[in-house]
Amino acid sequence: MTGKDIRKALEGDIRSGKFTKTGKLPSEAQLCRRFDVARGTVREALATLQREGLIEKRNGAGSFLTRLAERRTGLIGLIIPDYVRFSFFADVKDRIEHLARRLKFNVRLVSTDKTNTADAIDDILPHVRSLVADKAEGVIFRPFVASKDENGNREIASLLQEAGVPLVLLDQDIVQPPERSEFDLVAVNNVNAGRRIAGHLFAHGYRRVAFLMGRRGFDPNANWDNRLFGLAGELALRNADEVVRTLRFRPDNTSALLRAMSSPQRPDAIVCGNDESAVALLASLKSLGFKVPEDIGIVGFDDLECARLSSPQITTIRQPVQQIAEMAFKTLLARIRYPQNSPRETYLLAPLVIRDSTMAKAPPRQVFKHGQS
Fold first, then answer.
1. Domain total in the chain
2. What is the rounded distance in angstroms from the CA atom of residue 57 to the CA atom of residue 62?
C-alpha cells in the first residue's frame, strides 16, 4: 500500500466522522499496524493531509483534525454580482472550481443580470440567505464596485458574518479606500499598477497624461480611483510637465473627446480604466482623424482579447487571473481553519504588457479634421 492509498483511506475516515469524537487520529505506530506499512509511508500520507489543511500536528501529542476537516456540507459560495458581464470572472470561477473539486468542495455561483443597484441587491440577497441556510462553509465575494453600492455590500457581508460564515473579499473591499473592512481581501495592487503605467509612459516621452474616468454602462469605482492615484503620484514624483487630467466622459463621446484633443492641455496619452473603454476610445479617436500612437498613446487594463485584437494592439495591465483565484481560495481555506486570525490583505502583482498603442512618442504633427483646411 502506498502513501497515496493511505491518505485516501484516512480522508474517507475523516469525511465519515470516524475521528470527530476526539478530533485525534491514531498514532503513527497504530497506523503502521493498520496498513501494514513502514513509518515513512504513514508520514508521507499524514504530510499530504496536513498540506491539504485537514489535519495539524501538535508536538508530542499527535495529529488532530482541523476545523476544515470537520465540515459537514462541503459548500462554498462564490458571489460575483456582475459575473455575466465580464469574461475575466469566468476564468476566476473555473480556477476556483478546479481547486475546490480537488478538496471535495462544491462551488455555488451567485450572480445577477440586474443593472440597477437596488434591483441587483434585491436579486442577490435571497441567494445569500440560501447559502447561510444551506450551511455554506465559506464565501468568496466580489463586491458591487460603485461607491453608492457600499450599503448593499455591507448588508451582504453582515448576513454572512452574523451567521458565522467565513468571508473573503475578491478584487476590492466593501468600503472605499483608504478605509479597510474587517474581512480578508485578495486583489491586484491597483496603485502600483498605475505607477507602472506612469513609469512606462514617462520613459517613452509622454508628459501630458490623462485618465479617462467615463465608462459605458457602469460607474467608475475604487479600483479606478487607485489606478489614477498611482498614475498621478508617480508622474508627480518624476516631475512630469503637468498634473494628470481626469476626463469625465464616455469613450464613445466624440464631441467631448474632440474638445479635449483641441484644448491647450491636449493629452498626449490617455489611460483607461479597462480594455473595453480603451478599445472604444481607440475607435472614437480614429473617427476624428487621430492616429494611435502617432498622435496619442492609449493604455487599457485587464488584458482582454479585445486589447490583443485591436489595431493597433493596446498596451495594458494583465490581470493575473490564475493567481487571483488560487490566492482567494487558499485565503478562504485559511479563514475556515483559523477563524480567529486577524484580517489579511493580499495584493498581487499585475504585469504591464507593452504593445503598439504606446510606441516611443514621435514629434507632434499637424492633423486636419472636420473640414479644417
1. 3
2. 6
pLDDT category at 360 given cuts 50, 70, 90 is low
Q: Are residues 315 and 329 in the same domain?
A: no
> Which three three-digit cell numbers place residue 196?
507602472
Residues 182 and 330 occupy one common structural domain: yes
Buried-state track 260-295, b at ≥16 Cβ within 10 A, e below 16: bbeeeeebbbbbbbbbbbbbbbbebbeebebebbeb
What cell does 246 get?
A: 481626469
The residues near 243 (Cβ < 8 Å, ≥ 6 apart) are 232, 236
Amino acid 7: pLDDT = 93
Average pLDDT over residues 327-331: 97
**Which residues are bridge partners to 184 per DSSP?**
168
Angle at 58 between CA 55 and CA 59, to 5 degrees: 145
Task: Write the CA distances from 39 to 8, 18, 34, 50, integer angstroms.
Answer: 17, 22, 11, 16
Shared-domain flag, residues 269 and 341: no
The model carries a pTM of: 0.78
231 three-class SS: helix
Which string of DSSP letters, residue by residue, matches 10-50?
HHHHHHHTTTTTT-BPPPHHHHHHHHT--HHHHHHHHHHHH
| Owner of C-alpha cell 481581501 | 185
pLDDT of residue 372: 47
Sequence letter at residue 358: T
pLDDT of residue 240: 63
Mean pLDDT value across residues 211-237: 84
* 56, 168: one domain: no
Kindly state whether residues 128 and 207 are assigned to the same domain: no
**What CATH code is carried by the domain that includes residue 88?**
3.40.50.2300
Q: How far apart are CA 91 and CA 100, in angstroms?
A: 14
d(CA 148, CA 176): 10
Residue pair 190/173 in contact (Cβ under 8 Å)? The answer is: no
316 and 100 Cβ atoms separated by less than 8 Å: no
The verdict on residue 206 lying in a domain is: yes
Cβ atoms 51, 57 nearer than 8 A: no
Residues 6+ apart with CB under 8 A from 119: 112
Neighbours of 317 (CB within 10 A): 26
Q: Range of 19's domain?
A: 3-70
